Amino acid sequence: MDRRVAVVVSVVIVLGLLFACTATVLAAERVKAKDGSGIVGYKDTPMLPWCGYHVHDPDRPAPPKVTPRSRGRAPSDAVVLFDGTSLSSWQPSDWKVEDGEIIAVTGSLTTKESFGDCQLHLEWQAPNPPVGDDWDHGNNGVLLMGLFEIQVFDTYTTPLYPDGQAASVYGQTPPRVNACRPPGQWQTYDIIFFAPVFKDGKLERPARVTMLHNGVLVHHNQEIYGPTGHRILANYDKPIEPKRPLSLSGHNNPVRFRNIWIRPL
Question: The pTM is what?
Answer without folding.
Answer: 0.82
